[in-house]
Amino acid sequence: MFKFFKRVSTVVSSELNSMLDKAEDPVKMLDQFMRDMSGDIREVEAAVAKQIANEKMLKRKANDANAMVEKRQKQAEQALEAGNEDLARRALQDKKDHEATAATLNESWERAKNDADVLRSKLDEMKKEYQQMELKKDSLKARAESAKTRTKMNRTMSSIGNDDSKHGFERMEEKVMRFEAEAETSEDMSRNSRTLDDEFKELNKNDVDDELAALKEKMNQK
């Protein structure tokens, strides 16, 4: 499991480019990698807890066996003081049995303790590496988002010359220019259709006479 964790943590950066090539979402995949690593850590934590519990159980049994050794030693002495040699002999025999048991249990406890220490060390290393990957993940996610944004902008800029909106805008611009040309043409045609009398009438037009006529009409109304 620990080797798997190490392998996953060392390929995250290379996986980022691979995911981009496969059109996978790097942000979601990085989060998934971190969830997988977190699950690995929880499994190791459970294994460490189990190993520690086994170590404590063996230590407790070894202590109990050593306590029985001391107890039988005192009982043998007590039996001799009381003149009961047979009882003292049986106490010493049981003492030897407990000594053998204690030796076996102590040996098992030492192995269990070493295993627990190794697992603790690996767990600490995994947690430290996980924290480093968590920080790196934030950086990779920011880079992925930036790359996606740049790609989108570049695609937009590369297609802007063929954009339908631009073509539509150009068509409307041409239409306005056509309207303006038609208006200028109609004005020219209107001027060309006037007769000589119309031009002389406009030439002889007197604004003062018009104003005087309007004033007379106004006074006649009063």
From TrEMBL:
<feature type="compositionally biased region" description="Basic and acidic residues">
    <location>
        <begin position="163"/>
        <end position="181"/>
    </location>
</feature>
<feature type="compositionally biased region" description="Basic and acidic residues">
    <location>
        <begin position="134"/>
        <end position="148"/>
    </location>
</feature>
<protein>
    <submittedName>
        <fullName>Phage shock protein A</fullName>
    </submittedName>
</protein>
<feature type="compositionally biased region" description="Basic and acidic residues">
    <location>
        <begin position="188"/>
        <end position="222"/>
    </location>
</feature>
<comment type="similarity">
    <text>Belongs to the PspA/Vipp/IM30 family.</text>
</comment>
<dbReference type="InterPro" id="IPR007157">
    <property type="entry name" value="PspA_VIPP1"/>
</dbReference>
<dbReference type="Pfam" id="PF04012">
    <property type="entry name" value="PspA_IM30"/>
</dbReference>
<feature type="region of interest" description="Disordered">
    <location>
        <begin position="134"/>
        <end position="222"/>
    </location>
</feature>
